[in-house]
Specification:
With 169 residues, the chain is an alpha+beta fold. The protein has seven helices and three strands; from the N terminus they run ααααααβαββ. Strands 2-1-3 form a three-stranded mixed beta sheet, sandwiched between helices. The two termini are 25 Å apart.
Length: 169
């Protein structure tokens, strides 16, 4: 069990290094907010397309084919050159399959830099926009920070909410 834990730690360290490298390049080019938006869009592509997820996780996919698909997505989405180059590097280094972990590390670093508090709210049913707004207001007052709310639906919860902020529940 310790072996899988250290392997997980290694993936996390790799993800953090890749995320920090992207942040440094984006800050230097003064396009950090655009790159952040690009990363979120690409993460959405992966979440919505099982076919794309299979492609980037397929070790038999040759680099050129994978790169061609990624570049076409970048063209359609209008990504910045920094984001395009970054995805190209991930493809060449066979790290594209770790994009979700890299994106999570990137989001975490953005939250730290901007003073955001990431809060995960788990509920039995989807929250309405009004409920989410009320939560943002209450949690913002409690934490004294701007809240980045992520919601998760778990029907096994009998009622109420499970609110997780960092290591606090």
């Amino acid at each position: 069990m310790a072996k899988s834990s250290s392997a997980s730690g290694a993936v996390t360290m790799v993800a953090k290094r890749y995320a920090l490298a992207l942040m440094a390049a984006a800050e230097q080019a003064n396009v950090l907010s655009q790159v952040h938006e690009n990363m979120a869009v690409f993460n959405g592509f992966l979440a919505e397309s099982a076919q794309l997820a299979r492609l980037i996780n397929n070790p038999l996919c040759d680099e050129k084919s994978c790169e061609r698909v990624i570049q076409e997505l970048c063209d359609r989405a209008g990504f910045t050159q920094i984001t395009r180059n970054y995805l190209k590097v991930l493809t060449a280094n066979r790290r594209l399959g770790q994009f979700s972990a890299i994106f999570a590390a990137f989001e975490h670093e953005m939250a730290k830099r901007n003073g955001w508090e990431e809060v995960l709210v788990t509920s039995a049913i989807p929250l309405t926009r009004d409920q989410q707004s009320q939560l943002l207001e209450v949690l913002g007052r409690q934490f004294g920070k701007q809240i980045r709310l992520k919601t998760l639906v778990d029907p096994s919860i009998l009622g109420g909410l499970v609110i997780t902020a960092g290591s606090n529940m």
